[in-house]
Design goal:
The complex is a heterodimer of chains A (429) and B (480). Chain A has 429 residues and is mainly α. Chain A is built from 15 helices and 2 strands. In chain B, strands 1-2-3 form a 3-stranded antiparallel beta sheet. Chain B is elongated, with a radius of gyration of 30 Å. Classes of the chains: A mainly alpha (429), B mainly alpha (480).
């Protein structure tokens, strides 16, 4: 049985230690700095999106007023799509620095546009982000090891070990109390800054609680690892620092060796088309349309769009100057040709992610990182989700323009009020 | 004399490592990891090199195999360039997996690089990667700490330090012996790397670059071995030196590089390509649309041309006016595009420079900068790739426009939308597509890379001095 007085005494003891106080201060600073840096970055991304939205609107209106046919507007008008940072993205930047979160697309073949990436500075992405997810998944375990590895050894060296065991009402309770008064402040200095930033940023209570639970779970797992190694009979003769080396070994194997090995294995196992092949195929299909018999192209187009079967002929009287129908139809056919490759590419990305989620069960750090970026909607599936939003939006654009190109109604600028608008599926800040 | 005693101490330390399980395990694990990393990475790079070379040849062949066409159609058909990996990227892949390695080149647009490998890695390699450079820069120091933190303090705790010093061993002999032992142990991690370098040097890389590359890694290992030995002597107890060294490692290898990256992002935010695109468009709108000869922006061009050839209408010109407009507007547009592209690259470089300033705080950052710059996998080399791709883009697009000006009749050209037969007439021969040059990307010349890395060599040198002072302090304070 552990009593309150035990806890109190241990707390006094622990906080009497300069090394522990210093560690807690460092963890607090790391947590706060990582949060601030993620927060500032997400604010900047949000501001960028707002600036882009404004310019996007102006630019498109300029195109609409300057052009006089639907085909020309479709050619020149770009549409901004974006994945805004979620209210928790500041805590886990996740895949946002590798996957694009903004695209400007137009009516041309999508496969030629969607792999364009306006991502961040590659050198900074290579160095890695210093975000809250990194602090909690990679650094926190190291601090736990440093705080707990010589729990008992310190007392042995100070020759208080036996004294403590003898004087305590319950020998077990002392160590439990000491672990608790070390870990609870550690969790607090990590999480309090996060909760403050989270509330300030308008994150929901439930999502904040989820993150807290993930972090506490990670602390619990690592404490268990450290305590089990410390108490193992096999290592009974080891010095405290030898024990710590073993704990670091566990950290190394789970945090570094497991993920990189899994990465190499996944690379070998999961077949993925070369990205270059998708765009080459698409371009060949689009460009060869100019030289191929028109009927072949129309056949491929009508196969997926039977509703326009009766409208494919080019009538110089009815249709405006250039045969835009044919032009956009072969863009569509280009996408259709590359569609299998493109689907396989995305499927491979997702399949790798799925395998990685199983691998994460072997690595607490990886698991924490994945759970955090999933809570923050910055994981692979969120970014692929954005890609699919862009695809759906492009589909809607096509629907709008196909009507105006094939039915060829009189050109009215007002008709562009019905132009589809992109709405991100992740809630904005 | 000093060395023979040091050698004995070193040999003694080695006997201790081989006897204790932890040290032997660490040494073995380190050696296996380094070898695995080298093998895996070498295969990967080899494969990527072949794949990209193949794609590059294929792209060129496809371009040249196009049938007779209107030259402007070829401008839109475009071309792909692929960046082949550099020889040293076997050890230091650097930013390569983050940048994407293919660019589509076409008229009127500058596209960004596509298909960054990192997107397919499912986040597994975001903290760590199985690259020799990550192992050498981040993990090897941890291994050196794990085997060396107690090398001197152990003797002190066991009481053998007094014995050694009273038997006539000097402090320097003792410390050099311990240091020598740790250096030889860390050599186990370094050796595979050096052998790989040697192999690279004999293939295609400049020997001087490879030498400096090896040297900076060797110095880096030396730094850590010295810091570890010094700390082991400076602190009374093994547990304290252990804790201190782990804290130093966390700060230098894990924390500061990332902190540098985050500080750079926030201190010098870059506006990104999309936002720059808007500014480009704004500026370009004032320059006119190259597809439309009637755009008022080309009025002056037309007047000048009519005056030059002394004719009254564009129909009478000996050259194709549409081609002239396309050529003229592409040139002007490229200037604007390049101005913004240079701006953007300048911003990125500024961010990288801010992040690299952290090399004054952590030798890991300094050596990483040296390593990527020398290996040709740095931001600078990526920018060089972008610039070369742009030069090729402008060259073939303007080459096609020149064909448009000189080899395609204006009247046939203007009449091209009238019927299919008319469209078939408005073409030029496929032999013209031979104007496309080969793309064969090479990183900067050895001297340029070395001079780019000079500042970071200076950072490393400062670390050598600091470490030497630390060692001296440790020797002076060495008391039983």
């Amino acid at each position: 049985m552990m009593r309150f007085t035990d806890l109190k005494r241990e707390a006094n003891f622990v906080f009497g230690h300069r090394q522990i106080k210093l560690t807690l201060l460092v963890v607090f600073l790391l947590s706060a700095v990582s949060l601030w840096s993620g927060y500032a970055e997400m604010q900047e991304q949000q501001a960028t999106i707002e600036r882009l939205l404004e310019k996007d609107q102006i630019e498109r209106e300029a195109v609409i007023t300057h052009q006089s046919s639907y085909g020309m507007v479709a050619y020149y008008a770009f549409h901004l799509t974006y994945a805004p940072p979620s209210p928790l993205a500041f805590a886990a930047v996740g895949e946002r620095d590798v996957f694009p979160w903004k695209h400007r697309i137009r009516m041309l073949a999508l496969e030629g546009q969607i792999y364009e990436s306006d991502t961040d500075n590659p050198e900074l992405a290579f160095l890695g982000r210093f975000d809250f997810a990194f602090v909690t998944s990679v650094l926190l375990p190291l601090f736990i090891i440093l705080l707990l590895y010589d729990l008992k050894a310190k007392e042995r060296e100070a020759r208080r070990f036996d004294l403590l065991n003898v004087t305590a009402r319950n020998a077990h309770a002392i160590w439990t109390a000491r672990v608790i008064v070390t870990l609870v402040p550690l969790a607090l200095v990590t999480l309090v800054p996060f909760v403050v930033f989270g509330l300030f940023n308008g994150a929901s209570i439930s999502s904040i609680s989820t993150v807290c639970a993930i972090v506490i779970g990670n602390i619990a797992i690592w404490s268990a690892i450290v305590l089990v190694i410390g108490a193992a009979k096999r290592f009974a003769n080891f010095s405290a620092t030898h024990l710590a080396s073993i704990m670091l070994g566990v950290w190394l194997v789970t945090t570094v060796v497991v993920p990189v090995t899994a990465h190499s294995v996944i690379n070998a196992v999961v077949e993925t088309p070369e990205g270059g092949d998708i765009v080459l195929t698409q371009r060949e299909a689009v460009n060869s349309a100019w030289d191929k018999p028109v009927e072949d192209m129309w056949a491929a187009f009508i196969a997926t769009h039977p509703q326009w079967a009766d409208f494919t002929t080019f009538d110089p009287e009815r249709d405006t100057s250039f045969n835009w129908k044919w032009y956009y139809a072969f863009q569509q056919v280009g996408d259709q040709t590359a569609s299998d490759l493109s689907k396989a590419y995305q499927a491979a990305t997702l399949q790798r992610d799925t395998i990685a989620s199983y691998v994460a069960l072997l690595s607490p750090s990886l698991l924490t990182q994945r759970l955090l970026s999933s809570a923050a909607d910055t994981n692979v599936s969120a970014m692929v989700g954005y890609e699919n939003d862009v695809r759906a939006f492009h589909q809607a654009l096509r629907k709008f323009y196909y009507y105006h190109l094939f039915k060829d109604p009189e050109f009215y600028q007002e008709s562009f009020e019905a132009l589809p608008k992109f709405t991100p599926s992740v809630d904005a800040l | 004399m000093i060395f023979s005693v040091a050698k004995t101490i070193c040999a003694d330390q080695w006997r201790y490592w081989l006897r204790t399980k932890v040290a032997a395990t660490v040494l073995l694990l380190g050696a296996i990891l380094t070898l695995a990393a080298l093998v895996v990475n070498a295969f990967h790079i080899e494969e990527a090199a072949h794949a990209r070379e193949h794609l590059q040849t294929e792209a060129e062949e496809r371009f040249k195999a196009q049938p007779d066409k209107h030259p402007h159609r070829m401008v839109h058909y475009g071309h792909y360039v692929f960046r082949a990996p550099t020889p040293l990227s076997v050890i230091e892949p650097g930013v390569d997996t983050y940048t994407g390695n293919a660019i589509f080149l076409e008229g009127h647009r500058q596209n960004s690089a596509m298909f960054a490998e990192q997107r397919q890695s499912a986040g597994l390699t975001r903290f760590s990667s199985l690259t020799p450079s990550f192992l050498a820069l981040v993990l090897a120091p941890l291994f050196i700490i794990l085997i060396g933190y107690g090398s001197v303090s152990r003797e002190r705790e066991a009481g053998t330090l007094t014995l050694l010093l009273s038997q006539g061993t000097t402090r320097w002999q003792l410390m050099l012996g311990k240091l020598l032992a740790l250096i030889t142990a860390s050599g186990l991690f370094l050796l595979p790397l050096l052998l790989a370098c040697l192999y690279v040097a004999f293939s295609s890389e400049s020997p001087l670059v490879v030498l400096l590359f090896c040297l900076s890694y060797a110095v880096y290992f030396l730094l850590w071995a010295t810091v570890v030995t010094a700390c082991s002597a400076l602190f009374e107890k093994s547990s304290v030196s252990f804790t201190m060294l782990i804290v130093i490692w966390m700060a230098a290898c894990v924390l500061l590089p990332r902190l540098g990256s985050s500080v750079a992002t926030n201190a010098a935010p870059s506006i990104g390509k999309l936002e720059a695109d808007f500014k480009v468009e704004e500026k370009l709108r004032s320059l006119g649309d190259g597809h439309d000869v009637n755009d008022p922006a080309f009025k002056k061009l037309k007047e000048d041309l009519l005056a030059k050839y002394n004719v009254d209408s564009v129909d009478d010109l000996p050259v194709n006016f549409r081609g002239v407009v396309a050529q003229y507007s592409e040139g002007r547009q490229a200037k604007v595009l390049n101005e913004f592209a240079e701006n953007r690259m300048g911003e990125e470089l500024e961010q990288a420079h801010i992040a690299r300033q952290f090399g004054w705080l952590s030798p890991t950052v300094a050596v990483r900068a040296i390593s990527t710059i020398l290996a040709g996998t740095s931001l600078e080399t990526h920018h060089r790739f972008l610039r070369e791709a742009e030069a090729l883009r402008l060259e073939f697009v303007q080459g096609l426009n020149k064909v448009h000006v000189e080899k395609l009749d204006y009247k046939l050209d203007m009449n091209r939308n009238a019927s299919e037969e008319a469209a078939d007439k408005a073409v030029v021969g496929a032999d013209n597509w031979a104007l496309l040059s080969e793309f064969n990307f090479k990183p900067e010349a050895a001297n340029t890379r070395i001079s780019n890395a000079l500042v970071y060599f200076l950072q490393l040198f400062v670390w050598v001095c600091i470490t030497a002072l630390l060692l001296r302090a440790a020797v002076r304070r060495l008391n039983p």
